[in-house]
Amino acid sequence: QVQLVESGGGLVQAGESLTLSCAASGSIFSITRMGWYRQTPGNQRELVARVTSGGLTDYADSVKGRFTITMYYAKNTVYLQMMNLKPEDTAVYYCNAVVSTIVVTGAEFWGQGTQVTVSS
């Protein structure tokens, strides 16, 4: 089994910065991709940013130029640096990983979620 442990959420004011981290642990053979999604009440979970094992990144248009995703493969950890936060960034942020273990290839796992609240 694979566990994703997130940290770094909290309450900030508009314009401030916050960094989220997510560490993957367990019987991991390789990581294909890690990323962050977010969800607000009544809405579907949406992609924020993701990074592949090859270093390719993908960002939601709403966060381009403000958020940066970084993957440290030696530590199986992904970071999301969020700058110039806006009230509309308020959401529960979920870590996501596509992982291969000795049992399964390309399985998807989710973290428990961390709340980010941006006040105006």
Features:
mainly beta, 120 residues, 4-stranded antiparallel β-sheet, 7-stranded mixed β-sheet
What overall form do the CA principal axes indicate? elongated
Instruction: Summarize the helix and strand pattern as letters.
Output: EEEEEEEEEEE
How far apart the termini lie comes to 40 Å
Low-confidence stretches: none
Strand content: over 45%
Tally the helices: what do you get?
0
| Mean of all residue-level pLDDT scores | 96
What structural category characterises the helix and strand content? mainly beta
Please tell me how large the radius of gyration is.
Answer: 14 Å
Q: Describe the oligomeric state of these chains in a short phrase.
A: single chain
**How would you sum up the major sheet?**
7 strands, mixed
Got a strand count? 11
Give the proportion of residues in helices: under 10%
What does this structure look like?
By secondary structure, the chain is mostly beta strands. Helices cover about 0% and strands about 60% of the residues. It has no helices and eleven strands. The protein has strands at about 1-5, 10-15, 20-25, 30-40, 45-50, 55-60, 65-70, 75-80, 90-100, 105-110, 115-120. The strands form two sheets. Strands 2, 4, 5, 6, 9, 10 and 11 form a seven-stranded mixed beta sheet that branches. A hairpin with a 6-residue loop joins strand 9 (about 90-100) and strand 10.
